[in-house]
Amino acid sequence: MTFVVTENCIKCKYTDCVEVCPVDCFYEGPNFLVIHPDECIDCALCEPECPAEAIFAEDEIPEGQEQFLEINAELAEVWPNISEKQDPPEDAEEWDGKPGKLELLER
Ligand code: SF4
Ligand code: F3S
Questions:
Q1: What is the average pLDDT across 68-74?
Q2: pTM, full prediction
Q3: What domains lie within the chain, and their CATH numbers?
Q4: Ranges of Basic and acidic residues compositional bias (predicted)?
């Protein structure tokens, strides 16, 4: 089992999650983070830390966002690791909760 970063992280990217991960299994793209499914130890520490409530256990992914399981696995192989919190984008709050952000995912 793994935890998965889902759509609401896109363009919010608060990065609070990376600070609590004991195995540093977050990977960073231009406007989104992903979790490496083979490295995640299923500790659940990151889930309550995300201000955007974008992190879910694999078996609790909201309906319609199932593709993020595959997206996390794919992009964790190509993006660089991130283990320290960064400042979020200036307009992060404006994007929090907006629907249809998947098409804005930058790879
Ligand atoms: Fe890291 Fe634990 Fe979150 Fe997995 S569940 S990404 S190991 S903090
Ligand atoms: Fe994204 Fe939430 Fe982490 S917005 S960067 S999953 S704290």
A1: 98
A2: 0.98
A3: 3-82 (3.30.70.20)
A4: 95-107
